């Protein structure tokens, strides 16, 4: 189960006929890449604005994709090359080293098979969306009945296997003690990723990536492919055979306390986190909260005008942050802290003990480049900057 990054629509779902009782729409070729004629409805009594369902059953080599969008937005998906033709060659992928298996009282999860580990920066999986909807913020003025009908239409026009896979995301999802009535809303609220594509904000359903569960100390993260609709899941640390692949529903760089995290989980997704960090003994949780509070304080110090001009102070803060990040299992913010430490060493080298500071700076720059490479790719601007900094310190 993977949640929507920014879901704020708290309106109750409409009671509707179960999707399983509705007969799927047969294909009826439409213009462009669409395999079904676009289905459009006027969304307001005071205007002629329309939202439409566009389906390409050939997308992703027959797995299919349905988009609910304005016509001009759908056209942008096509013109920007985000919907490659079905004639493009099928990509070859090695046998995955993960398997989807049940967790006791927690639904399904992705676990590493008894095979080689996933190494930091290794791609675990590449997933494609099956459904794309307008973001919740952009549909507040549209009636729930209209929105629900469009979403159901989009789901029902997917190929049978993809439709079944997407619907399975709702099987173990509840809102408190009460099951959400509208199945498609259920799926969106707890599984959608928010992305900017084709000039608008959308909620996308990635059925395989959605199986990755949450942990406050993740060993993986998701990365959007800017030239397509694909989403990559990348190993953040080494993930050993038998370990579950997990990522963070929240920004993993935020030093949130136990209480703050639980409040966000309850408000956004109505669940209580039971990861290793959140189920530790009370004294361990208190120690973690104290360290995270210190992280926030040190970050604030970096913003002080006095600190910004003091290379020694910057280096000292960066070194302390690295210690705290390591203790808290916060991997991603270590990249920036290493970069800060490297720059601190560079400026200190200009005022004496040049070789000592340059040697230390190269170490920090190398580690920053490694982490940025995992997060953004080896060809990223961040990696290039750290490589250049390392050369400057030679």
From TrEMBL:
A Pfam family the protein falls into: SET
Domain of life: Eukaryota
Stretch list, region Disordered: 1-33
Ranges of Polar residues composition bias in the record: 1-11
Lineage: Eukaryota, Fungi, Dikarya, Ascomycota, Pezizomycotina
Protein name: SET domain-containing protein
Residue stretches making up the SET domain: 49-250
């Amino acid at each position: 189960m993977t949640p929507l990054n920014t879901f704020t629509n708290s309106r109750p779902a409409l009671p509707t006929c179960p999707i399983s009782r509705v007969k799927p729409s047969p294909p009826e070729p439409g213009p462009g890449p669409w395999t079904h004629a676009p289905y459009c409805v006027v969304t307001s009594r005071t205007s002629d604005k329309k939202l439409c369902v566009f389906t390409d059953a050939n997308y992703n080599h027959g797995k299919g994709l349905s988009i609910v969008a304005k016509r001009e937005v759908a056209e942008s998906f096509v013109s920007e090359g985000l919907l490659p033709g079905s004639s493009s060659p099928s990509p070859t992928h090695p046998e995955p080293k993960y398997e989807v298996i049940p967790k006791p009282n927690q639904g399904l999860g992705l676990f590493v098979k008894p095979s080689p580990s996933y190494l930091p920066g290794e791609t675990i999986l590449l997933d494609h969306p099956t459904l794309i909807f307008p973001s919740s913020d952009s549909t507040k003025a549209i009636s729930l009945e209209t929105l629900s009908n469009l979403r159901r239409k989009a789901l029902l026009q997917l190929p049978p296997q993809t439709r079944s896979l997407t619907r399975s995301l709702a099987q173990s999802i509840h809102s408190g003690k009460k099951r959400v009535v509208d199945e498609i809303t259920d799926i969106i609220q707890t599984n959608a990723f928010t992305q900017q594509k084709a000039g608008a904000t959308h909620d996308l359903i990635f059925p395989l990536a959605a199986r990755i569960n949450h942990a406050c100390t993740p060993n993986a993260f998701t990365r959007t492919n800017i030239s397509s609709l694909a989403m990559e899941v990348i190993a953040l640390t080494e993930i050993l055979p038998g370990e579950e692949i997990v990522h963070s529903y929240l920004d993993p760089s935020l030093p949130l306390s136990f209480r703050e995290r639980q409040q966000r989980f309850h408000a956004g997704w109505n669940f209580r986190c039971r990861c290793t960090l959140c189920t530790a003994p009370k004294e361990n949780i208190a120690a973690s909260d104290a360290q995270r509070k210190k992280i926030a304080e040190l970050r604030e110090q970096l913003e002080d005008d006095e600190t910004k001009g003091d290379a020694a102070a910057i280096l000292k803060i960066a070194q302390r942050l690295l210690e705290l990040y390591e203790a808290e299992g916060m991997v991603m913010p270590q990249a920036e802290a290493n970069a800060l430490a490297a720059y601190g060493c560079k400026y200190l080298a200009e005022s004496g003990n040049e070789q000592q500071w340059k040697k230390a700076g190269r170490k920090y720059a190398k580690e920053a480049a490694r982490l940025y490479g995992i997060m953004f790719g080896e060809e990223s601007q961040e990696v290039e900057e750290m490589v250049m900094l390392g050369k400057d310190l030679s």
